[in-house]
Amino acid sequence: MRGALRGGLVLAAVLIAGCTSPGAGQPPAAQGKEVCEVLPGPPSGGLNGAVQSAVGVAHARLGVTPVVKEGIEPGIGPFLNGRCTLILAAGYEEAPVIFTAADRYSREHFLLADDWFDFGSAPDLTHPNVTVVAFEADQASFLAGYVAAAVSPNHVVGEYGSVNTPTVDLALNGFLAGARAWGEDSRENVKILGWNGSRGPFIGNDFDQHTAFSITSGLIRGGAHVIFGVAGDAVLGSAAAAVRHPSVYLIGMYSDGYAAAPRYAGRWLTSVVFDMTSPVLSATRAATGTGPASGLYVGTIVNGGVRLAPFHLLARLVPMAVRARLATLRIGLAQGWVSTNPAEYVPREKETGTGNG
Known about the structure:
This protein folds into two domains: 4-136 and 275-299, Rossmann fold, CATH 3.40.50.2300; 137-273 and 305-344, Rossmann fold, CATH 3.40.50. The two termini are 29 Å apart. Helix 4 runs antiparallel to helix 10. The strands form two sheets. A seven-stranded mixed sheet has the order 3-2-4-5-1-6-12, with helices on both faces. A six-stranded mixed sheet has the order 8-7-9-10-11-13, sandwiched between helices. It contains ten helices and 13 strands. It is of the alpha/beta class. Strand 4, helix 3 and strand 5 form a beta-alpha-beta unit.
């Protein structure tokens, strides 16, 4: 694995109890059992959307029943009753709670989505009842930045995050590197507003659409025509700002914004998608004893764990030459000869970090 793992990845710790496909010839160990989801904020947007999609597949294929508890601080207490096949928690603040519970309730299985760890000294990764899922978000966000710089009429783009953590910074830096890479390839000036590799605007959480609207409006005033928000459901505030301008487009994060927020269908250029289906299914089977024990899963461009969403209604904006170049870049990212480190690309125009860092 590349140096991205050492720097800080978007991580998900997953503890899931039992699923097997209810189809013919497969053991019914998971049928009727509950996958219990603790989702801070709305269940449909951001990382929660990616989680919901994976659990939906587990329901269809394995027969488990989703049970959702949502809110700003929903808590896992009500699910520690022995009934849950999976106890799933999404959010960067949930790690201490989940790992404490994993120690106390060794027969339970947990999923913690969107956290980060120091891989050099992370005893949390050794929990036998926790599967850790990491996403190399910088790979897909690099491609997003490349497309954004090409599509923006004036080659000015903007990006901001939810909370200043290594998880979010990884995605922001990938986008920054991709935008700079397009500038090098095309020999055009590219300007990236917001995050500049060391500082930039952050909302403070994944839910505040009002602040996202304000940050996005500032980026638009600065000339940005494509906005990347690594901010979960708060990115809908960016969409509300974008619709006020005729040629401002959005790049979502975690799940496909086009599907999650179809009322803004004409504004989603693409999204950086996390596909949690494979690790969720594997961990569920492991928890019911119908599959091999699960361990560290890293979602990459190679295995489809991270990818760009389709361009949908805005496909006409992406030149064929850029699409062809994206195919080459995917190979380079997979093989390691394309770097996602923004410091390895020389800015062709002065970049400005804005907002609070």
